[in-house]
Amino acid sequence: MSKQEVLILAVTVQGLSYREAARIHGVSKSLVHKLHQRWLTEGEAAFTARSRAPRSQPARTPDAIRARVLQLRAQLTADGLDAGADTVCSLLAAEQVTLSRSTIWRILRSAEVIVPQPQKRPRSSWQRFTAEQPNELWQSDTTHWRLADGSEVEIIGWIDDHSRFVTHLSCHLRVTGRTVTDTFQQAAAVHGFPAATLTDNGNIFTTRFAGGLKARTSGNAFETLLALHGITQKNGKPYKPTTQGKIERFWQTLKKRLTMRPASSLEELQRELDEFVDHYNQHRPHRALNRRTPAFAYTLIPKAAPTQPDDPNIWRVRYDTIDAHGKVSLRFGNRMMHLGYGRGLARTAVIVLIHGLHAVTITPDGEVLAEHLIDPNKGYQAKT
């Protein structure tokens, strides 16, 4: 017997008042009254529980947009590309459709095309490290791949740590030390030499563990090349691939794409890699870049270079937020300086680019907010 039937019988058969029936069964008096009046009007139909859904849902996402969300999800998945709510949100924005990430996620979940994973570690707990400037640090690694006929090849990539911009990606029958130096110089010829590199401890990158744990006194061709150009070489800890996390994560994204578009030859695979690099650099919004493309982040601020710290051409980059008083504080020449912007820009995230005595402040979107000509004898620096 349903709750509704019990309450109605308490009034009609037992002869209880609305107040008494409500007290005995732990409900409100108005509910008992409503059910009794419904019984008087509808009879036995009043015993059936009613839907609590609203008669209309004016804020519900239109069916056409919901269908477009699912269509984009299916298309991205078929192409082997990232198909999460963030990516779908960016593609909809390009079509002048504004939809929040959470709404897209609910649409995908209700259609049962994604499975929630609450057991995964929250992103807020991650500790990120990112180089402050483009070309400040390049990560490199190699990975194995199989062609459609089962033959195995190797892929080498170079990726900018600051922007995730892929400076080089190519496939080879086998990656050798010569391949490393050739691809590095090819990337540098187009994008400039980085200030530092980060790789694992493979013999193609370093000989410090060659022949055992005792490092050799002479480096290989890649180490020699870096030394000649004044480039700092960094290597991750042995058996700790997370140190090179950005290039390792890049392989996951790449292989997802290649799985959906198998290549039968080395030449065909290289064409797939070139096409993927163009999409990844120029069109794919990146979560770690606030949904901006790697190409945008790579060209937003000046690039670092393998220069000495006292080089007059070196750029200093500072990421900060304008305080409540409209200032950003920084140390300049062993003295604390305060760059003034005005209270109207308080709490604005900024990037301060300092070159000599000239400071330019831009937003993360590239908009110039202010310029300062630093006077070393003053603590407060007004805008020019």
From TrEMBL:
What are the recorded Gene Ontology BP terms? DNA integration
Q: Which PANTHER family match?
A: INTEGRASE PROTEIN, TRANSPOSASE RV3428C-RELATED
Tell me the domain of life.
Bacteria
Record the organism.
Microcella frigidaquae
The molecule here is called Transposase InsO family protein
**Cited PROSITE patterns:** INTEGRASE
> Pfam families, alphabetically?
HTH_32 (PF13565), rva_4 (PF24764), rve_3 (PF13683)
Q: Which intervals hold domain Integrase catalytic?
A: 130-302
**A single MF term (Gene Ontology):** nucleic acid binding
